[in-house]
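FW: tagging you since you asked about this chain on Friday. Here's the raw sequence from the shared folder, copied in full. Didn't touch anything.
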Amino acid sequence: MTSSMVVPVIDVQNDNFKELWPAMVLAIKTASFIALDTELSGLGNRKALLAECIEDRYKAICNAARTRSILSLGFACYKKLENKDDDDTYLVQVYNLTLLCSEEYVIEPQSVQFLVQHGFDFNKQYAEGVPYLRGNDRRVDAHGMNMRMLFVELLRARKPLVLHNGLIDMVFLYQCFYAQLPDKLGTFTADLSQMFPAGIYDTKYATEYELRFAASYLEYAYKKCKLDNSKSIEAGGGGRHLFLEFCKYSVPLSNYVDYRPCLAGFSPDGLLNVCQRFSAYGWCPNGSQCPLSHDTDLIIQHDEKEKKKKRKRKRKNSSQGKVEGAPKSKEPHMELKQDQVIPDKDTKPPPLTELVDGAQMPETDEKMKTKVEEGNGVREPQAVSADEEMKTDKEVERNGVSEPQPLATPDAEKKEESKRKKLEGGTHRAGFDAFMTGYIFSYAATLTERVGKPPSSESWLPECLNKVYLSGKSVPMHIVKSTFSKSFKAHLHKMDVVWGKGVVSKVEGTV
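HL: got it, structure written out here
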C-alpha cells in the first residue's frame, strides 16, 4: 500500500501574478530540475498528428499551435536537498497558472467538454487568466512581469526541463511564449538544444524504455513509481529511496494554495471489475458513465498479479518463452496529446473481472489476441482502430489523482457515487500533472543511482537525455543541432534578449 500525501499547488492568475512573481522566479532559479505541463484548447486534425513522416507531424502540430492556445500552464520545481543520508530528498514547489491568449484562437468543443468534466473553470479563465500574445515579441513584452518574461527566466535558469510526452508541449511553448515557430523540424530541434542546454527529458520515454512499466500514461506511471518507492522503503533494504518535502506557506501565499490529496491505494474485498479500455489506454469512451472501475490503484494491483502469474508460468515451462511485460490489452506508443476523447464504439473490449485472490475469468473476445512488439518486450493488441491511435496523453492523463472508485454493483446509489467520484476525483490542474511528471523523473533518477550508477550533475538519466517520445514510433526524437540544420532568425533574436547581444553570435547559419 502506498502512503498518502497532500501536495500544495499555488494557483496563479492575473490578480496575483505580480505578487507571486518573486516566489516563482526564486523557485525556478533554485530548482535542480523543472517539470512542466500544459492544458490546450485543441489540436485539430488527429490523423495528421500521427503522420508517418515526422516532418509532416511537426507541421500539423505547428498549425495547431498557431491557431490554438495554452489555457493553463503548470510547473513543478524540484530542488534536491543535500546531506540527507543515503536517500534522495527534494523540496517541491508547484504552480498552476491560468492563462488567457489575448488574440483570437480556436477552442474545440471536445476540449471544452473534457476539461469541464474534469473540473477546469472556464469562467475563471476568461475573468482572471494571465494575458499573453503568441509569436514574436512585441515592444511591451521585453520588460516587466508577464508570461513571456517568465519563460525567459526559465531559460536563464539553465535547468533540465522535464515533460511527459512532451513534443506538443514544446511546440506550443515555443509559439506562445518564445517566438514564431520555424517551418522545419530540424531548425526547431536545433533551437531547443540551445534554449535548454541542461537537457530535455521525457518521462513517457523513460517510463517505457527505462522503467518498462506495463502502461505509460501519466497517472499510471506516477502511481506505479509511488507504489514501488513505498515498497522499497517498507522492505528496509539498502539503496536510495525518494522522499519529498513541501514548503509551509503563510499568509498571504497560503490564500492561493490548493491542497491536493494523494490518497493511498487500497485492497478491496470481493469482486473487482476493472475497465479494460481504461486499464490499457488511460481513457474510456463511456467516461463517468462507465459502470466499471477506472481506479488506477486497482489497475496496478491487477498488473502486479499478472506479472506474478507470468513468472510462475515461465518457471513452470521455460520452453514456452513467455515475454514478461505489459498485461493483455496494454498498448504502448499510441498516445498523442490533448484533451479530446474521440469515442470509439466499434471496438469495446470486454470488462476484466478478477477475484481479489487472483482468480480470473477467461477472455473470449478474439480481438484482444496479442502479439509481441519487437524490441520492447511488451504485448500489444493486434486489433486497433484508427480512432484509438488518435487517443492522446492529454486525454488520458488529466485525471490528476483520482479517489478509489467503488466496485461495480447493480445498486443505483453506488453507481451514482462512482460517477460523482470520476468527475470530482480528476479535477484538472496542469500544476499537479507537472508534479506527477517530476515525481516520475526523480524516482527514475533515484532508481538509476540505486543500481550502482553514480549520480551526475551533467545528466540525470543519461539514456533519456534529449530524447522525446514519438507516438507510434519505436525510436525517440533527438533534441540536437545537426551539422545541416540552421538556427531560426527569430530564435537568435530571442537569445539576444535572454543572454544579451553578441552571446549567440558564434552560431553558424540562420534561416
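FW: Confidence is low (pLDDT under 50) at residues 322-329, 337-392, 395-410, 417-427.
HL: agreed, and Residues 293 and 337 are 23 Å apart (CA to CA).
FW: great, closing this out.
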